[in-house]
Design goal:
Blueprint lengths: L1 H24 L8 H11 L7 H36 L10 E8 L6 E5 L4 E4 L7 E2 L10 E6 L4 E6 L5 E3 L10 E5 L3 E4 L4 E6 L1
Parallel strand pairs: 3-4
Antiparallel strand pairs: 1-2, 1-10, 3-5, 5-6, 6-8, 7-9, 9-10
Helix pairs in contact: 1-3
C-alpha cells in the first residue's frame, strides 16, 4: 500500500514539473512564455495581464517539493520501522520458547513432544481433538490440556478425563481445574501405566 502511495506521489510530482516546464518554455500566455511575462514585469514594470503565470511558477514547484518530501519521509519511516522490527523479538516460537513433554512409560516411552509457549496442547486418545495421541483404552478422548509459560518456566495442566491424572504422590488432579506446576513435574494418566515429565 505504501509503495502505491509513493508511486502516486512521484507521478503527481512529475506531472507538475512538466507543467512548470511548459509554462516556462511554451508561449501559452498570448504568445508569451511565463518567463518573458515575469521578466517584463520585473524589469520594465509591464502590467501582469496573466496572473496565472506567477501562480503556476510558484505553486507547481511548491507542490512538487511537498510531494517529494512526502516520499522521502515515508521512506525514512519505513526504514525506521524495519530497524525497530529487527530489534524486537519475533512472535514465532523458537526451540527456546518451547517446553517439552517426555514420556517415561506407556506406549510412547522415550518419545518427546514440543509444547509451544502460551499454546494449549491437548493429550488424549482422539487424533481429532488432540495434538498428542495416546491410543490406549484407559486414556480419555481429550484427557488433559497443557500450556507452557515460557517467562516463568512453568506449565499449566488441566485434567478433563474420566480415569484421572495423578502426580508422583498419587494425588489425583481435580477435574476441569487448571493448576500451575514447575519444570520437571511428573504425572501419571489413566491407569498409571503411562507417565510423562514436563521440562522447560
Amino acid at each position: 500500500m505504501k509503495d502505491t502511495y509513493s508511486r502516486g506521489y512521484k507521478a503527481a510530482a512529475l506531472v507538475l514539473l512538466l507543467i512548470e516546464l511548459a509554462v516556462l518554455c511554451l508561449p501559452v500566455f498570448g504568445g508569451s512564455t511565463a518567463f518573458l511575462l515575469l521578466k517584463g514585469f520585473w524589469q520594465h514594470g509591464n502590467q501582469l495581464q496573466h496572473i496565472a503565470a506567477p501562480l503556476l511558477l510558484l505553486i507547481c514547484p511548491a507542490i512538487s517539493l511537498f510531494l517529494l518530501l512526502k516520499i522521502q519521509t515515508s521512506r525514512t519511516a519505513d526504514t525506521t520501522d524495519k530497524f525497530v522490527e529487527d530489534l524486537l523479538p519475533h512472535n514465532e516460537n523458537t526451540p527456546a520458547d518451547c517446553g517439552t513433554l517426555f514420556f517415561l512409560s506407556g506406549p510412547l516411552t522415550n518419545q518427546s513432544f514440543p509444547l509451544p509457549a502460551y499454546t494449549n496442547v491437548f493429550l488424549g486418545r482422539s487424533s481429532q481433538l488432540c495434538q498428542i495421541v495416546v491410543n490406549t483404552a484407559d486414556i480419555s478422548r481429550k484427557h488433559i490440556c497443557l500450556c507452557y509459560h515460557a517467562a516463568q518456566h512453568t506449565f499449566v495442566i488441566t485434567d478433563y478425563s474420566v480415569n484421572g491424572t495423578y502426580n508422583t504422590e498419587g494425588e489425583r488432579l481435580i477435574a476441569n481445574t487448571s493448576i500451575e506446576v514447575p519444570d520437571g513435574s511428573v504425572f501419571y494418566i489413566g491407569n498409571k501405566q503411562t507417565s510423562f515429565r514436563l521440562s522447560a
